[in-house]
Design a protein that fits this description.
Distance between the termini: 93 Å
CATH class of the largest domain: Mainly Beta
Radius of gyration: 36 Å
Helix content: 10-25%
Number of domains: 7
Shape: globular
Strand order of the largest sheet: 19-20-21-22-23-24-25-26-27-28-29-32-33-34-35-36
Number of strands: 36
Length: about 775
Amino acid sequence: MKQHTYRLRSVAWGAVLSTLVAALPAWAVEPFAVRDIRVEGLQRVEAGTIFASLPLRVGDTYNDDKGASAIRSLFGLGLFSDVRLQVDGDVLVVVVEERPTVADVSFSGIKEFDADMLKKALRDVGLAEGRAFDKALADRAEQELKRQYLGRSLYAAQVTTTVTPIERNRVNLNFSVAEGDVAKIEDIRIVGNQAFSESTLRGLFDLDTGGWLSWYTKSDRYSRAKLNADLETLRSYYLTRGYLEFRIDSTQVAMSPNKDAMSITINVHEGQRYVVSGVRLEGDYLGKDDEFKALIAIQPGQAYNAEQVADTTKAFTEYFGRFGYAFARVEALPLLDRDLRTVEFVLRAEPSRRAYVRRINLAGNNRTRDEVIRREFRQLESAWYDSDRIRLSRDRVDRLGFFTDVAIDTEEVPGAPDQVDLNLTVAEKPTGNLSLGAGYSQSEKLSLIAGIRQENVFGTGNYLGLDVNTSKYNRQFVLSTTDPYFTPDGISRTLDVYYRTTRPLDEQEGDYRLVTPGASIRFGVPFTETDTVFFGLGVEQTKIEPGIGMPLRYYDEIAEFGDSSLSVPLTVGWARDTRDSALVPTQGRLQRVNGEWGVGGDTRYLKASYQFQQYIPLNKKFTLAFNAEAGWGKGLGGKRFPLFKNFYGGGLGSVRGFEQGTLGEASPLQDDPGTLSYVGGSRKLVFNTEVIAPFPGAGNDRTLRLFGFFDVGNVYAEGASLDASQLRASTGLGISWISPIGPLRIAYARPVREQPGDKTQSVQFQIGTSF
């Protein structure tokens, strides 16, 4: 019986395969019809995997070319360290030696990373439990681990791989890491600067040589990405101040021999400072030259500013887009006069051809239904291309809050120069949230918080939430659902069912409380793209449960309305928010108006409130912030304003330096007339001013900020005049920190205007409040 063997080792199988054709004549056999195919050497791999990869079947004619192709295919699976083909008569025998399988991956010596994070990084390069293993894969894994440590400025990290064979052709892998010390920035030098001091330019950087808070900010850890961002900041600083020819010639990063210190040197060429002498238009502006001139942000007579040039070309391109010119080209050509140090800009435009949108394609919304996205679009298919509507559509989709990334690309349609397709790509994020937590503040003490929220129920875009709060003074159970498109034209509907218990803020321990079960329905009507007006109707019952330490004012309330009163409030509201961030705003404005009218039940009243916030960036580091709040309430039908609708003042979120809720009307207790309890008032005025700055030593980290403030305000009882002499005022310093459990604010305040009997408090803190 003749037997021929073709064998290939995995150590250099790629090189052998390249010479296989030349070698085959030495092993050549006469072609024959394959009667059977037999596989030997399998342990975990299924035989079907082998048969599916072979380029021939039983009954086919075998030849040397097919044998070489079979070996290439089997090695391409990456499962075998050795493959042989044997011919036994008219039977083809495939003999394989499986690569070992990774049974376990472990780490030792790691402190900087969590083991699960490193396992995920190794999985991305192909190494994971249950996968085939070879030495090349281990080398790639080592390099990936070192790359992870380089990202944390641990340049001295060393990785040693230990492979331990175990039974059933498996191996255990252990990566032993000697992390070494963090490479910290020892020095940052800027060479070639003349117009600005080195300290001024270094102050623009997020990277620095460290301070007493570097353990938190990690600003002294070198990162190539951070350095590139700082270089762009430096470039922008010069280009917005007239230095049109500024450039960064080179950047040197030098590391100490023991790899624990780094020195950065940046060589710059400033060039001359240029002043804009004029701006003129060239090209086709659709006969709308005056309209385009109104969009020019470049200011003749002022220093060259790259941002103004970029804003102008962008505005021109978008304005062309409003008329369907999706492929318009706009260039800003500088004409330099180096002797006079002036620059004239020629804005050259070529509108190209007008286009309309053939199709809008969606991608990435694996869970969210297409209609949820498409109903936010203001650009329609088969309509002329409109850049304003496209940008608005993208922003509206992003504001849904269901996606981590939203991008729109314009694609030309082959063979149709006047048509484009819009491709919207989204990256979905988990929209369900199960929260279990605790909070603490001086007024509320310990509170347990639990919530279940789903912002995109079954991909419909609807919201469903359940919240429970167990604080000392305010406990609540709220079930809420929102349909943002209750009607096809975008009117939203919100249903709330709630049960709240409230005990007024005072220092007396008592068992009296307000119990308020209720339900409401609210509709949001979009009057414009940025303004939504809310209308709602609710019904709630408020019961006063008398107890120890209850103020006399509550007995008056019972006498007028009874211990249980029914209210039917009609609510109206409006909101507009243009802040750049809800947590750490640096610019923009927030406005809210809310109105409530008790139209039925046992109470008749009107209640209104208005809030205005304005953030003004003074520079990259400092922000000026204003906040103003006004509240007004009045009883109708000859009755008082309901006590349980009162406003409260004092403490964080109001006038700092005064105890929480102690501004306003004070009522003696029934069983202790010499003790007063604060019950708020029907009118409220609060004004806050803050100057927000980086925390010393924290660099430009926006999550940790220092602020100085000045507060003015008070709460007035119904019938009392709004006497300015009764306003309280305070000033002080505070710290704002976006902590893992929410925004934390700590303030030290000193009253500068107070009245005898006021309760003051120098240090106040709370989680989840602003101003």
